[in-house]
């Protein structure tokens, strides 16, 4: 199924689909009353997902056709397939093209979906209250942006309380996982329809291997194979000559009741074969048949993934005989075959994550044997002999795996497999020769596991040992192990360990040597020596296609303080990792990119990247990366002024960072908490929290973040009468600021001096700070400087002079949706006698988004946040976020003020 269609496909009979159609009927009944819901339908290619969706849309439309005497709108049913091209938002475009009456309406809906309102509001606007069932086919083929938007829409529209644990799941025939039968979200029963009216129903199909999103209250139905009676009925419908019982039995055995294969075979058999007069082919479902049914799934995979699937199928010694062939292959044999055919093994991560392949110990196997037969049939003819020769005698311990950028779950499996294979050889000469390599790779696996989710200094020790064991026999892997050991030590904040891992670049060449020498010089505070080497790394590796080299170039750019180059290079690494389906690498790339965006002052981008990185890290079990992303999100929330989000994300980060020794993540999280406290006027508490972060020593903050924290500490310390400590920190910061590794440092140094100065001297330093801010581009820090300047002017009885900086600060905070900081600036402005609230200009209403206007209107009429959320199909937290932005933009502080402000204008719908 591809593209988007308004009309549904012609009706056809469905066999053995009673349970599936019953689940559709339950959802359709809720959709007719506006309650909506989500039903997931999973199955293998050819098992009839599209047919069930087509029937669902058709039945819903027919059931709701109004009679001549009725004036109500009829039911609408849509069937939308995955677009052929999976560019960003391509799926959403296909959806809106199906739902919208005109192309301009579709474009407007896409803008709403990509903006603050989200996809749910865009769909609600298009449907205009009509009872609707939307059937989305092949969700696994939709682009990531559209899938994320759909998931958010389904989660926001899901049950608020009782259904948060999800709906019932079941197999074909009504057998439910968990042993109980539920027909939908229980809390909807008996509630007024108006409370949740206007929601569409969603029937969503996906491949059996696809990981479904977690949607509260959703029901999941798994399509199954046909029974003997169902298969006979299907064959009777498809075959020109009714097949004799013996032929039916043979077809059923060879296809295992797979409806797509049965249909394909039936089209190929002659009348003589169906009547038993001619022999049937062996096998009946040969390569051409399975390739016809599974070809589209294989065709949509990246080239390396298709090649690897073919290699796994070819490496199986059984040859795939029978419908239930195991297709279990030793992973060492697959690696040998990959080396013989020059196939990259990195795509294994994606195949395992997607569920197309499964792992059991050191064996790989297909979940679906027909997919294996299709992959085998699609392999080039020359590969058969090549793979047979490569896997006939696999020398133990000779299959290598690149670590570093591609390291992850697959790397661990591959290396463990080699160790296990060598152990079985006992005292063979080959085993004794490669023992150091095997032990080195074993240590590499342990180090990778600890780096992903354990104490980072344990990872450091294992990776360093791996580098030593692999130095002579596997120099490339040894180099990767050293780089990863350095990353582990960096995350732990241990400079001597970083230097040991870098080893001064001994034995390295080219960019690798430049990076090691440059970073060694930077860590020993010899920046003049570091710059030329690191600049060569950025220039040389920053244009490569290997994510490993791009990560190294991005790290070099961050050390140099070139945040623009760092963000650009890491964005390139992200694009390459996605294109190559490097599932285990993706969280690490997103971690680096989020930090680069944070350092550049692009907080909204940093938050977006960190959220994606958090999802990727949780899916791949990389707890340490998840902790870092939580810390980034906490720091961004401290900018916005969302106290709850700061506490939540900082707490989640520290849960992992403290026991695992993640000094960098812990420093970011503590800094976020302190900034939140400072924004709420708790200067003494913030200063006490920041004191350890700006000190040297093992109990201090991370060495790469210590100086970045100083300006915040100085502000808190001065406000809490700890001027001596503030002055000492500022003096050290002055030495660091002139080294040019942070473009914002001159402006923040001037602000520190202004806060510490006396008499009229602060006015000069505040002016210098604003001038430097204009050159570095971080608007949030510029607004903080203006706020501090305006506060100083007001307290020195210069209210007229204070209003200008305070107004500029207020506007900047409002643009950044930094509600807490905006309120601080607004209170200071009020104290000067300036107009920051009360009568609001008519133009202020126009600065609100359409969604914010709707929310403001409902709140002004007395609705609670939950009532607004239910009315607009949003979550209460989203409503709260929009409402705070409304208050900030209108310059008001309460719902009472909002009612008065809204009453000033005529606001038609």
Automatic annotation (TrEMBL):
This is LuxR family transcriptional regulator. The keyword Protein transport does not apply. CDD domains: LuxR_C_like (cd06170). It holds the Pfam family AAA_16. Residues 168-190 have a biased composition (Basic and acidic residues). Keywords: DNA-binding. InterPro entries: AAA_16 (IPR041664), Sig_transdc_resp-reg_C-effctor (IPR016032), TPR-like_helical_dom_sf (IPR011990), Tscrpt_reg_LuxR_C (IPR000792), WalR-like (IPR039420), WH-like_DNA-bd_sf (IPR036388). Residues 156-200 are annotated as: Disordered. It comes from Streptomyces zaomyceticus. Residues 841-906 form the HTH luxR-type domain. The lineage of its organism: Bacteria, Bacillati, Actinomycetota, Actinomycetes, Kitasatosporales.
